[in-house]
Amino acid sequence: MLLRKKRGLSQAALGKKIGTSGDVVGRYERGDIKPSIDVVTKIADELEISIDFLVGKTNQEFDKKAIHRLELISELPDKNKEFVLNMIDMALRDFKAKQAYS
Fold it and tell me: Which CATH number covers residue 27?
């Protein structure tokens, strides 16, 4: 529900985008009924989040851009992938160090 609102969508608007009604979306949000995997996929696509986040398997809200970047990194040759991951590790270390001394 918070994600839907964060994206500026009413229950009716989301329902229309996924091929159902706002009433049904409300029932999903309240836990009265459970959507099919097809509907979960449509909701995740419309909200531009991972299915894992939508169903509560992770608290990391990866948007489609982040997921796409991770997919691109995974397709790199091992040497290039290692370089990119080392750069990310370095940036994270620097960020944590700055937080620790702030």
Answer: 1.10.260.40
Residue 61's CB: how many other CB atoms inside 10 A?
14
Both 8 and 46 in one domain: the answer is yes
Q: Which residue has the tokens 């620097």?
A: 94
Please give the model's pTM, rounded to 2 decimal places.
Answer: 0.67
Mean pLDDT by 10 residues, the chain (102 residues): 88 96 95 95 91 84 81 96 96 94 84
Q: Domain span at residue 83? A: 75-100
Overall number of domains in the chain: 2
What pLDDT is stored for residue 79 in this prediction? 97
Task: Report the 10 Å Cβ neighbour count for 25.
Answer: 25
What pLDDT was estimated at residue 102? 80
Based on the domain organization, do 20 and 50 belong to the same domain? yes
For tokens 């979306």, name the residue: 25
For residue 52, what are its two tokens?
């894992």
Q: Which amino acid is at 42?
A: K
